[in-house]
Write a sequence for this structure.
């Protein structure tokens, strides 16, 4: 390295704040102050650094991040971890911390077996009762049935030579060997060796009920259920039920009159505290340990619109879910969670979407936005794609939907249903498919706005843009795509002023969430679902909407 | 809300009964979620770079890194979160490449000095986008320079932390970053000159100046 290179390397380090030694930094600073060329070099270096930082940020924003399945696996592991910690601490609460606790924790974090987890919970509760009854005089007992079950454990990703994957200065043992890393992005369903998460959830649900029954029978002391930290805002899904007294939006008033804020508006609504901060809370609390007792379902989480501004969904889904759910409920049985696929249920029904204009594109996109009925602080957006009924079998090929959120208006968003579909940050989404004549596709997004509707000075804003790409049936696959774009403008409409189709779709989605015991069900109840479905029943010439209401009634009567 | 401030787990809290444990586990969950929010994109881009553009596998690696983070003690990792994540990602990527026997090892000197391929497949052509131009220029740098520059300006790591991730000396890291930056400046200047000659404009953006000529040795 030449002398000048040494100097320049030093100046680069100085420009980037990388000279730790104060004396040397002072000397370089004096040099820069007295030498115009050195000063110019430092300025250039900093300018280049700024350009690079911007470039990398723009790159990161367009890179496809983790798939929904991968994110869900992370969330599931977090819940396992939290549950595990709770059990360890329950034992610790008896002032007896097993010597093997750390090791046990590490082992058990590897893989949870639904049945073993449930049994462990039951045993822990019963053991807790014993421990409590003996007034901490006996050593605690912790369930340590840690053997992973082949029926539920995802293949390990412990590859030869992976020991060096931890930072070298980290002496800690790996807590587990991996989880579902073979869940290739883009997979539409469970991968080989990995249990269907929804089946898994159903099993857990049953086990949870067994555990609760066992706990009731044993009459244990009151073991404090994991409690959420006191909500700072009333935005999180269950917060509405536990909202602190004070000025809050009235759900009942919302139903009747649209968005209404009770209390003193200036004191009750602060965009930062309610919506923006609420979005962060929602993102981080959606699966907190208060939900540990819930069945572990894969659910699309809320996404930060700044970090993940793009979404997509397929225009064609299967239609098996609703008939199966209906048959199960009408037979007096709770449907397995794996049967409840909200996007399939929604798209099972016919909707009255406007036909594409004559002579124009063979398909149309439309968006309707109104207050989210199960969380009145949120907005619910229905995206509808419908094809011209022109008699032809296929009216558009390679149909691909891209939703681009506007972070200025949308703090966070969640695609309802489509739990097994991969997210995509760009085009093409991978959902490209053909659309038959008269075909429709409906998707719902629940949106946390950056500023709540109803605050003083609120104005209509575009929450997102929908672009549908397609080719005409006669065009080759290599032909450039046509596109139809629609801006999703939120005019602040209340749920009661939404269209019949919107209200009915919302009811179907809410029903699906209730059946799945979704953490995002908010304030929804079966009575709500029936009311919303009734309000959105419309002409119902085929009677399918009335039949849906009967199914909801059956679920309500069965306590589902 | 800083990541470091949310690491309440300590031995004292570990020995508390349920309420305390809940606070610790909830805080750790939040710590991991914040880490995912903050580093998911940059880590995926970095892993993709290390893997030579394999988007799917880069996601697998990033997921694995976060899964491993769940088992870690926030207090122990503390302010070294970024370094920890990048190290895990890098090591996993190298393992994956070794396992596949399909790519050169990053630690090989030949690989270190090799110029990487042209823009990766799947990159969208945004020729008018200055940012895209910078990234394309980046991809023509030797891989070891690219990596250090990514870790510095994408990961926000210090020279010392980059040294920890890459096993290079701090001096070497500083030299690679300096050399890479200088080359990039030169390419940006060339691109700017080309643009100006094409448009007849004489405006010069600050970052597109020609790099300074090598300066005379200065005694300091």
């Amino acid at each position: 390295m030449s002398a000048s290179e040494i100097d320049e390397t030093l100046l680069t380090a100085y420009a980037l704040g990388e000279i730790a030694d104060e004396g040397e930094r002072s000397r370089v600073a004096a040099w820069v102050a007295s030498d115009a060329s050195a000063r110019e070099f430092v300025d250039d270096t900093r300018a280049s650094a700024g350009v690079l930082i911007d470039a990398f940020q723009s790159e990161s924003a367009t890179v496809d991040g983790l798939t929904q399945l991968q994110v869900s696996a992370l969330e599931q592991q977090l819940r396992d971890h939290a549950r595990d910690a709770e059990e360890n601490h329950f034992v610790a609460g008896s002032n007896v911390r097993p010597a093997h606790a750390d090791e046990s924790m590490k082992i058990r974090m590897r893989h949870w077996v639904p049945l073993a987890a449930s049994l462990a919970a039951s045993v822990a509760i019963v053991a807790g009762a014993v421990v409590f009854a003996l007034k901490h005089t006996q050593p605690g007992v912790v369930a340590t049935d840690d053997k992973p079950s082949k029926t539920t454990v995802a293949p390990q990703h412990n590859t030869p030579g992976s020991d060096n994957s931890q930072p070298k200065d980290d002496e800690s043992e790996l807590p587990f060997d991996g989880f579902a890393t073979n869940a290739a992005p883009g997979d539409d369903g469970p991968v080989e060796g990995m249990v269907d998460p929804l089946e898994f959830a159903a099993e857990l649900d049953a086990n949870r009920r067994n555990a609760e029954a066992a706990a009731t029978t044993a009459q244990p002391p009151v073991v404090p259920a994991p409690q959420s930290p006191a909500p700072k805002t009333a935005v999180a899904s269950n917060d509405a039920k536990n909202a602190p007294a004070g000025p809050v939006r009235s759900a009942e008033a919302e139903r009747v009159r649209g968005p209404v804020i009770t209390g003193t508006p200036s004191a009750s609504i602060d965009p930062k505290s309610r919506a923006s901060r609420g979005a962060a809370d929602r993102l981080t609390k959606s699966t907190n340990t208060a939900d540990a007792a819930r069945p572990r379902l894969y659910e699309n989480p809320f996404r930060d619109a700044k970090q993940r501004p793009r979404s997509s969904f397929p225009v064609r889904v299967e239609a098996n879910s609703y008939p199966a759910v209906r048959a199960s409920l009408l037979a007096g049985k709770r449907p397995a969670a794996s049967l409840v696929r909200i996007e399939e249920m929604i798209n099972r029904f016919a909707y009255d979407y406007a036909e594409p204009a004559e002579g124009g594109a063979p398909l149309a996109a439309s968006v309707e936005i109104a207050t989210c009925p199960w969380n009145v602080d949120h907005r619910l957006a229905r995206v509808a794609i419908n094809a011209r009924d022109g008699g032809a079998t296929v009216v558009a090929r390679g149909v691909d939907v891209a939703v681009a959120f506007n972070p200025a208006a949308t703090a966070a968003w969640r695609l309802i249903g489509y739990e097994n579909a991969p997210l995509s940050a760009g085009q093409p989404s991978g959902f490209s498919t053909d659309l038959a004549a008269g075909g429709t596709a409906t998707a719902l997004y629940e949106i946390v706005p950056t500023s709540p509707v109803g605050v003083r000075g609120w104005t209509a804003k575009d929450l997102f843009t929908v672009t549908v790409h397609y080719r005409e049936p006669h065009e080759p696959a290599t032909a450039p795509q046509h596109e139809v774009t629609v801006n999703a403008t939120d005019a602040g409409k209340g749920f009661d002023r939404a269209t019949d189709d919107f209200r009915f779709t919302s009811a179907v989605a809410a029903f699906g969430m209730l059946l799945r015991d979704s953490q995002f069900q908010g304030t929804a109840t079966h009575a709500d679902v029936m009311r919303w479905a009734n309000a959105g029943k419309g002409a119902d010439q085929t009677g399918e909407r009335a039949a849906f209401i009967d199914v909801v009634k059956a679920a309500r009567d069965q306590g589902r | 809300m800083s990541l470091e401030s949310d690491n309440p787990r300590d031995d004292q809290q570990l020995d508390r009964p349920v309420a305390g444990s809940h606070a610790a586990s909830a805080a750790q969950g939040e710590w991991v979620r914040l880490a995912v929010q903050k580093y998911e994109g940059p880590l995926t881009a970095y892993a993709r770079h290390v893997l030579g553009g394999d988007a799917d596998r880069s996601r697998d690696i990033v997921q694995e890194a976060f899964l491993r983070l769940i088992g870690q003690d926030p207090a122990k990792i503390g302010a070294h979160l970024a370094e920890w994540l990048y190290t895990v990602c890098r090591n996993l990527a190298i393992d994956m490449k070794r396992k596949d026997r399909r790519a050169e090892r990053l630690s090989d000197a030949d690989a270190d000095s090799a110029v990487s391929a042209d823009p990766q497949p799947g990159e969208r052509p945004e020729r008018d986008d200055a940012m895209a131009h910078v990234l394309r220029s980046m991809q023509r740098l030797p891989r070891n320079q690219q990596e250090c520059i990514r870790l510095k300006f994408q990961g926000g790591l210090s020279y010392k932390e980059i040294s920890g991730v890459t096993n290079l000396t701090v001096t070497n890291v500083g030299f690679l970053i300096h050399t890479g930056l200088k080359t990039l400046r030169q390419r940006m200047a060339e691109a700017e000159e080309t643009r100006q000659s094409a448009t007849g404009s004489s405006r010069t953006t600050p970052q597109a100046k020609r790099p300074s000529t090598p300066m005379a040795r200065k005694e300091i």
Q: What stands out?
A: The beta strands of chain A are 303-304, 310-311, 363-371, 379-387, 394-405, 410-415, 433-436, 440-449, 461-471, 482-490.
